[in-house]
Design a protein that fits this description.
alpha/beta; Rossmann fold; 7-stranded parallel sheet; two-stranded parallel sheet; 9 strands
């Protein structure tokens, strides 16, 4: 019997690439999207899911379980980027960011854990980010959600390992997806931050356009899902590999100076 995979945020980018790869390897794949009436591509059955809603998460997980009887692999990929200086971002916008990127993950995990514990098997794979290891300016709350996902996934690993359930965190660097184009911008923009904010946003967009393919991340997800002894963390891309290492060995003042230069934070205009 094929194993069942549920991938949140599967309408494009990393989620879509992951769904395609698992389908090609013979898994039964369900993907989710926020669209009310999703159209299912050939590689998976698409379900409507709003990860900020307890009822929506319960209904979605219930539909999959009613059709297959089991969910062996959960891939938490749903999320978005919020751009803006900390002072420009309202508390409501920050809370919305956490509701989707962090608490959305918690909701889906809590919904699948009972069936996984009963089966004494399962894999939970959370899509983190390089910015969950190294924060960047003008995306503070996006970075904060990914930092939170690091701690959450590590704690979860300890707690559910005795039940035969694995937890892995995928940490991609720049990946060519629509995430920067689909990013939200804080409403309360201030002229004082306009220059550096625009330069940082442009630099990140350029990095995304030159980044690795979503298929690289999908391969790491598949490895975490199928390995007999999966690692807790999988870094994807050279930037995700060497930057955290550099951060550990280089004095903070030097590392921070290099990041400021990369984003042209001290430019006059």
């Amino acid at each position: 019997m094929p194993q069942t995979v549920l991938v949140t945020g599967a309408s494009s980018g990393i989620g879509a690439a992951t769904a395609r790869l698992f389908h090609a390897r013979g898994f039964t794949v369900f993907g989710t999207t926020r669209a009310a009436n999703p159209v299912s591509p050939p590689e998976c059955t698409m379900l409507s899911l709003e990860v900020t809603s307890d009822d929506s998460v319960r209904d979605c997980i219930g539909r999959v379980l009613s059709q297959t009887g089991h969910i062996e692999i959960l891939v938490n990929n749903a999320g978005y980027v919020l751009n803006g200086a900390i002072e420009e971002t309202s508390l409501a916008e920050a809370k919305d960011q956490f509701e989707t990127n962090f608490f959305g993950c918690l909701r889906t995990v809590n919904a699948v854990l009972p069936s996984m514990r009963q089966a004494c098997a399962g894999r939970i794979i959370n899509i983190g980010s390089l910015v969950g290891l190294i924060a960047v300016p003008y995306s503070a709350y996006y970075c904060a959600t990914k930092f939170a996902l690091e701690a959450y996934s590590e704690s979860l690993w300890y707690e559910i390992k005795p039940f035969g359930i694995g937890v892995s965190l995928i940490e991609p660097g720049y990946i060519r997806t629509s995430i920067s184009h689909a990013a939200r911008t804080a409403v309360g923009l201030l002229p004082a931050y306009e220059g550096p904010r625009n330069r940082v946003t442009a630099a990140i967009k350029n990095g995304v356009e030159k980044g690795g393919s979503p298929e690289l991340v999908a391969k790491a997800v598949l490895q975490a899902a199928t390995s007999r002894n999966p690692r807790l963390r999988y870094r994807v891309g050279s930037d995700a590999t060497w930057l955290p290492r550099l951060r550990k060995v280089v004095p903070w003042s030097i590392f921070a100076s290099g990041l400021r230069r990369q984003f042209a934070l001290d430019a006059k205009a």
